TrEMBL record:
Keyword Membrane: no
This protein's UniProt keywords: DNA-binding
Name of the protein: TetR family transcriptional regulator
Domain called HTH tetR-type: residue spans: 15-75
DNA-binding region extent: 38-57
GO molecular function: DNA-binding transcription factor activity; transcription cis-regulatory region binding
Organism classification: Bacteria, Bacillati, Actinomycetota, Actinomycetes, Actinomycetales
Keyword DNA-binding tagged: yes
Gene3D superfamilies the UniProt entry points to: Tetracycline Repressor, domain 2
């Protein structure tokens, strides 16, 4: 039996209905797993008919893509807001780097698993969707350019290395093999050798 309670049908604007179904789908994915999703189940839990769900998303791939984008936007907004606040408060580059690693790993330990699972499902359902996915390293490279004063190519390569390491690092934290603080230091270590950071101690 589904743990998601169907919502009563009522007339609401199409945009609100669309967002409602998207929120229901994300909730189902978090509680029951992404592989449990079908448009029929999302429609039932949202209190609408299956044809209505198809009108809004077109296919399960369309639903997964929108879920992927929304979870990613929430993830990225949390990181951007934390960094912007610290930069405004006068944090130096080393402090901003630490904050970036702290917030990113905390987001990854929370929403990151769902984000990755959605991405994998999109590729599995519709292979061509791989080419439509945002290059996250390219998206975050300007952050490294701004705070470290490095060129875009170097920033991009550092972000590729960082993003490649984050999943394994989080797995090690979850399994208890390393502590959160150790994970943060490991991730910071990807950047520190490549840039000169005010606030970095000389050994």
């Amino acid at each position: 039996m589904s743990s998601v309670t169907p919502r009563s049908r009522q007339r609401i604007p199409a945009s609100a209905r669309h967002q409602q179904m998207l929120d229901v789908a994300i909730d189902m994915a978090r509680t029951q797993g992404v592989t449990s999703l079908t448009l029929a189940r999302v429609a039932e839990a949202s209190g609408v008919s299956k044809p209505v769900a198809y009108q809004h998303f077109g296919s399960i791939a369309g639903l997964l893509q929108e879920m992927f984008e929304q979870v990613g936007e929430e993830y990225e907004q949390t990181i951007a807001e934390a960094i912007a606040y610290s930069a405004y408060s006068g944090a130096n580059p080393l402090e901003l780097l630490r904050l970036f690693c702290e917030v990113y790993i905390d987001c990854s330990l929370g929403a990151g698993a769902l984000y990755d699972e959605l991405g994998s499902m999109i590729v599995a359902v519709v292979e061509e969707d791989r080419s439509r996915r945002v290059d996250i390293a390219e998206k975050y490279a300007p952050f490294a350019v701004d705070i470290f004063g490095i060129d875009e190519r170097t920033a991009y390569k550092l972000m590729v290395a960082f993003l490649g390491a984050i999943d394994r690092t989080c797995e090690a934290v979850i399994s208890g093999r390393i502590e959160r603080e150790e994970a943060i230091e490991l991730l910071m270590g990807i950047f520190v050798p490549a840039v000169s950071l005010p606030g970095q101690s000389d050994n």
